Amino acid sequence: MVWKSLVAGLAVPALLALPSPAAAAPRYSPDGMLSYALLTATNEVRAEAGCEPLRVETELLHASIEQSGYMATTRNFGHTGPDGSNFAVRAHEAGYRQPAAENIAYGYRSPGQVMDAWMASPPHRQNILNCEVRSVGIATRRAADGTPYYTQIFGWR
Fold first, then answer.
1. For residue 142, how far is the Cα from the chain centroid?
2. Are 35 and 140 in contact (CB under 8 A)?
3. Which of 6, 34, 85, 98 could be a cystine partner for 156, CB 3.0 to 4.6 Å?
4. Does 5 score more than 50 pLDDT?
5. What per-residue confidence (pLDDT) applies to 28?
6. DSSP-assigned letters across all residues of the chain
7. Residue 79 has pLDDT above 90, yes or no
């Protein structure tokens, strides 16, 4: 696949970061580059399947930052977030009204490893290759020991 060559060397990226809700301007970080590489890889896989590329929605980005941060801080890996929330609740709280699905992962050191795992898992693959979804928020956050936690939240609009 095309995306594998793009993300193969990004085990320790150091360029683009997606802005946090409080940031006035983008910051550069390894986690931001991992998230950006996952967006690129996701859209390349979707293109190969005949799907339109996903666009980043700020509200979904905030909801995915919240979940990745929660998992990294608590080491509680799962789709349930603070106060028992799920991806739909987090998306609604961030102002997004049509959430579709969520993919999560942890421990993988490169975007290629994350994508390989998601594409090998039928439910995660189905979320990525659902041509009806139009938007996404992708975030990577690290636990104190450096373990990365990834969240993709997909939206219908």
1. 13
2. yes
3. 98
4. no
5. 58
6. -HHHHHHTT-SS--S--PPPTT-SS----HHHHHHHHHHHHHHHHHHHTTPPPPEE-HHHHHHHHHHHHHHHHH---SS--GGG--HHHHHHHTT-S-EEEEEEEES-SSHHHHHHHHHHSHHHHHHHT-TT--EEEEEEEE-TT--EEEEEEEE--
7. yes
The rounded distance, in Å, linking the Cα atoms of 58 and 20 is 10
Residue 147 and residue 113: Cα distance in Å, rounded?
14
HSE on the CB side for 100, CA within 13 Å? 21
Give the C-alpha distances (Å, rounded to integers) separating 152 from 24, 25, 28: 23, 22, 20
Q: pLDDT by residue (tens digit) across 12-61?
A: 332 223 333 343 334 557 888 889 999 999 999 999 999 999 999 999 99
Lookup result for tokens 């950006």: 36
Residue position matching structure tokens 């709280």: 93
- The two tokens of residue 20 are 């946090």
Residue owning tokens 């896989």: 45
Residue 7 confidence (pLDDT): 39
